[in-house]
């Protein structure tokens, strides 16, 4: 007879409430993964001795040794190429590319090898690689240190793409990503690394590819991922002062996209505004808008609005506040849907 | 949080310049400055240039008089800064959180 135990209620196992930043939550997930699976390897520029430029891999080399957590040469293409070879030999690599802007030299490996190997070998060589990619802007870094590459990776068949927005979800999504036998690009929102709050680190329960409503509302749905979720929550707070109740949907999996979750929310609210940092043209917002429109055409009270970065190269630090979707730009888009 | 003193030294403002002459201080001891606020105008053999503040803090000491030449690498100004906030690592800065973000756009709830 199967005994059903609600593990969350047993005092000894109940996850404790801890005050953790997203950096620390990701670090804890990496610890769990390294401990549970001897095939997991963590490597990249400065992830070993230094503990990562964002301190995400702090202490891991000391705890698990320099055979499992190690520094690489400053060569992104080699980092991903090494991940491919390790994966083919049975390892479960978790490489880091230090900044998303540095991913471009590795795109050949990511697109031509990582994403295709499972297809090419008819499943003989799966690529259980999770690429940790500090992503997006918001920390006023120099050029090439802030990008928003989700559309590029989501457009590449064979890859899964995740972008968490808070510490607890960063923990759960990373566990799922690394345990998945498919390659995942795990985009860590740099601007939220220092987001510190009381969290319970729990095993993920939602399947890969599910979104979540982080704030319920009835007048319109704000759809976002990564750091823009926080901004949308700020917007929803301000909108409430005007009597407008905004729902905020954290997409969190950008491939596969939770089409059903989008439809369920927008069918209720009848209005949708999608917010992202990447430029407008051919951004993931277009995909979201198409999915919403296809499924909710008759329910929609207004066309889906997109609030995005501009169609310019991602600017260096001082111009970032002008480039990223501002609270007013999002509010203005909401108003356009309300008065349509 | 405890304050600590951080001294900013004169950087090389060109390629291989050895010194700069202070023309005009744009801050005084006791001023609280933001990052990138104008700090001091100096003149090198190439040009006159305003050096922005490398960080936020309270000015506790100016290490040179006006018209005085300062060798590259010598102390220029000392700030008192609040105990170290979490560092951004090698590049970038930790975003600051506004308790209540500013807004201009107001919303009108829909009729339905």
Automatic annotation (TrEMBL), chain A:
Xref: SUPFAM superfamilies: Thiamin diphosphate-binding fold (THDP-binding), TK C-terminal domain-like
Alphabetized Gene3D superfamilies for the sequence: 3.40.50.920, 3.40.50.970
Keyword tags: Oxidoreductase, Pyruvate, Thiamine pyrophosphate
GO molecular function: magnesium ion binding; oxidoreductase activity
Domain Transketolase-like pyrimidine-binding: 20-195
Keyword Oxidoreductase: yes
InterPro entries: THDP-binding, Transketo_C/PFOR_II, Transketolase-like_Pyr-bd, Transketolase_C
Obligatory cofactor(s): thiamine diphosphate
TM segment ranges: none
The protein's name in its UniProt record: Pyruvate dehydrogenase E1 component beta subunit
Automatic annotation (TrEMBL), chain B:
Keyword annotations from UniProtKB, A to Z: Acyltransferase, Lipoyl, Pyruvate, Transferase
CDD domains per UniProt: lipoyl_domain (cd06849)
The protein's required cofactors: (R)-lipoate
Domain Lipoyl-binding: 5-80
Cellular component, GO annotation: cytoplasm
UniProt keyword annotation of Acyltransferase present: yes
UniProt GO MF annotations: acetyltransferase activity; lipoic acid binding
Protein name stated in the entry: Pyruvate dehydrogenase E2 component (Dihydrolipoamide acetyltransferase)
Organism: Nocardiopsis flavescens
